[in-house]
Amino acid sequence: MPHFNACGGCVMQHASDPFVACWKAGIVMGALEGQGIEGEVAQVLTSPPGSRRRARLSGRRLRKGALLGFHARASDTVVDNPRCRILTPALMALRPALLDLVQLAAPRSREIGLTLTESPAGADVVVEDARDLDTALRQDAAAWAAQAGVARFTWNNDLVAQSEAPWQPMGRARVVPPPGAFLQATREGEAALVALVLDATRGASRVADLFSGVGTFALPLAETAEVHAVEGEAAMTEALLKGWRGAPGLHRVTAEARDLFRRPLEAAELGRFDAAVIDPPRAGAEAQVARLAEAGVRTIAYVSCNPASFARDARVLLAAGYRMDPITVVDQFRWSAHVELATRFSRA
Ligand SMILES: C[S@@+](CC[C@H](N)C(=O)[O-])C[C@H]1O[C@@H](n2cnc3c(N)ncnc32)[C@H](O)[C@@H]1O
């Protein structure tokens, strides 16, 4: 653990897996207790080392060379980490090329952001806060992408090169997410969450997938149910629908770009669903959960990346008469303080 003391990506690399699992379960239990909820953590499913297939790193150009890594704890210092133990081997193999990219793209005065996503077609690389592209720099950037062998390369929202569409398997569909779009951080974590969601909604024939992203849950659900996916980013719903159209035989999937904080699905709209999946960002889904409770949707599979907002939303559902199943912690951010979980709420 050579970078454990400095790198902010991992705070618990010195601890055993059972200790970290227990610690994370304790964070969830603490959040529930804070809302006066008695709950149970049934299991903790931790993604293995070397499995993070999506990460946002920072890069800084130096007089000689470059730095590439996560930030130091509570600091804006970039910690260069040539032996990172969390990224996949394919992303680590890209590191020498990425250091060249930092030298090409970063202005002297500030760092750049690099969002890396592994796909079966090759890496999807996005740089942000990079130097402005002129003709010469665009050519250099395209040459970098060709030499690095990345599938797609986006520079300050500008598509510079694409040798192949960086698709992701979602059930039997193939989805090409927009550059930098959200994806579950590890394949193992995604598989665990999909299995939990499918299990929680088993038997449902019409499912609302709220905060659907590019279809991580919607497309596997469409094997057995009609799905209406709702997501804030139109580019993500478009990618989802394109993936669905390319996978004949699935049940009908419809999708809607909608801000679920300001305009949650109303109880009247929710009446036609016998199950809902909800996977909000860290803020939780206060407004949407209130409508789900009002509508009385029978089964709700809740996936959360923040135990505190989850516990607040859980309290609303429990007060409305729902029962909460034991919780599964899905740890895609091993050695960090980040905690994700999934459970089912149901009512008769
Ligand atoms: C935790 S991600 C889950 C995505 C998807 N369920 C998955 O597993 O890949 C949360 C999603 O909510 C979307 N989102 C964020 N704020 C939103 C809002 N106000 N209304 C609708 N969607 C929003 C994000 O774009 C992101 O795709």
Automatic annotation (TrEMBL):
Keywords: Methyltransferase, S-adenosyl-L-methionine, Transferase. SUPFAM superfamilies: S-adenosyl-L-methionine-dependent methyltransferases (SSF53335). S-adenosyl-L-methionine binds at residues 184, 211, 231, 279. Signal peptide: none annotated. The active site is at residue 305. GO terms for biological process: rRNA base methylation. It holds the Pfam family tRNA_U5-meth_tr. Its EC number is 2.1.1.-. One of its GO terms (molecular function) is rRNA (uridine-C5-)-methyltransferase activity. Belongs to the class I-like SAM-binding methyltransferase superfamily. RNA M5U methyltransferase family. This is 23S rRNA (Uracil-5-)-methyltransferase RumA. It comes from Rubellimicrobium mesophilum DSM 19309.
